[in-house]
Structures are given as structure tokens and as C-alpha cells.
Amino acid sequence: MHSTDQQAHDELRAWQQKMQRRPSQLNRFTRHLQTRLNALLPERVHLALTAAIKQMVRGVLFGSTHTTGQPRLGLPLAEREEAVHTRIRYYRNTAAVEGAATGAAGFLLGLADFPLLLGIKLKLLFDIAALYGYDVKDYTERLFLLHVFQLAFSSQHTRNDVYRRVADWETYRQTLPTDVHEFDWRTFQQEYRDYIDLAKMAQLVPVIGAAVGAVANYKLIEQLGDTAMNCYRLRWFGTETNPGSVQEY
């Protein structure tokens, strides 16, 4: 195994341990705090955010994939990951600018940051999938992206369950529903909202909103990119022959 591949493998092992940790006391406290903070926002705001998340993500599953490049075939892992890092940096900077702009514009535009940032995250996942050699026109590959998303932005308790599905994806995908309406949208949107509320609620506060929005978006995109890379590393090292390549490990 090449040194760059060995480094990726070592990073994957460390990430796997993190994904399988038991929820700590801090995790439980944070979840309780998120519930208390959620209560500060009016119910109509929660309903609007929930509807936006659900409709945008469902739109991705049914929508056109023409903006995503063709799967990159026949490339070594190091070359793929160099391209992935470039895409993460691009979307990370884009999200930071968007967060600063909406945070500086006040409460109403601050709310608009939620669906805007969600769109940036989903587009990043589509690009990463193609760079690792997977065709997002495949319905099950788009569902895989939802699991990656959920893994990145869930409580540790939910993360443990989602990780097990991702780690055994080739088996789990055989059990996936053929009807997207059977996907557990309630858990998906609630975990996502609860996870980002702590980081994002301060963006709605005057004066500090711009700085908070920029930093929070930067970190959230960075976390999603890292999660996606390790999920695809699981599939790369977990099969004898990876997609679009004849190299074996």
C-alpha cells in the first residue's frame, strides 16, 4: 500500500473509533441544552425550517443530477482525494461568505441561511460521490448520501446506528425501500436541526451574526467533507476491487 493510501487508511481507523463511541455525559447534556434552546424560537420558525429541510432533500432525490460531473473512473485514491480536498475548500469558503452575508443582514435573512447552507452541503456530497467514482443517478447512491449527511449531523446515539448501516452498506442497500416516502424523514430533519441549532442560533443575533455565520458554516462544511471522505474510504478499502479501478488492496 502506498504511503498516501496508508495515511488515508490510518485516518479512517481513527474516524471509525470516533463514530463508535458511546454517548458521553457531555453529549447527553448538549442534547438537553439543544432542546431548551429550541424552545426559544417561535413554533412557526421550527415548522418553516422543518418543511424547508424535508422538501429540499426530497428534491435532491428526485431532481436532476445534470450539474454533477460524471463518475471519475480509473484513478488512484491519492488523486481522487486531492480533488476532493479542493472541492471541500471551495464549498467551505462559499458557505463562509454566505453565512457572513446572511448573518449581517438581520433576523429574516439569517433564517434564509438554513436552506441555503443545506443546498451547498448537498451539492458538495454529490461532487464527492462522483470524485470517488460513484454514479449519483443511482437511487441507492443518493440514499447513501443522505446517510452520510445524517452521520455528520446527528447526536452520538443516532450516529452509532447510522454508522453501522454505512459500514455494511453493500448489504444494507439491499433492504432499502423503493419508495422514498418510506425514508425516516422525521428523525433525519430533527437530528439535523438539533445538531446545528447550537452553532447557528447565535447567527440570528444582531452585531455578532456575521462573524458567527461565517465561522459556523466553515466548520460545518469541513465536518461534512471529512465525514464523506471517510465514508467513501470505508467502501474503497472494504472491497477487493474499487469502482472504476483494477487496483487491489
Short description:
The chain has 249 residues and is an all-alpha fold. The protein has helices spanning 3-19, 25-38, 43-62, 77-104, 107-131, 139-152, 156-167, 169-172, 185-200, 209-238.
Please tell me about this protein's structure:
The radius of gyration is 18 Å and the shape is globular. Helix content is 72%, strand content 0%. Helix 5 (107-131) crosses helix 6 (139-152). The longest helix has 30 residues, at 209-238. It has one domain. The chain has 249 residues and is mainly alpha-helical. It comes from Hymenobacter koreensis. InterPro entries: EcsC. It holds the Pfam family EcsC.
**Gyration radius, to the nearest Å?**
18 Å
Low-pLDDT residue spans:
104-110, 202-209, 240-249
Oligomer: single chain
Beta-strand percent range: under 5%
Which structural category fits the helices and strands? mainly alpha
* Total number of strands: 0
Major beta-sheet overview: none
Query: How many DSSP helices?
Result: 10
What is the percent of helical residues?
over 70%
InterPro entries: EcsC
Pfam family, one: EcsC
Protein name: EcsC family protein
Organism: Hymenobacter koreensis
What descriptors fit this protein?
249 residues, mainly alpha, 72% helix, globular, disordered C terminus
Topology readout:
Blueprint: H1 3-19, H2 25-38, H3 43-62, H4 77-104, H5 107-131, H6 139-152, H7 156-167, H8 169-172, H9 185-200, H10 209-238
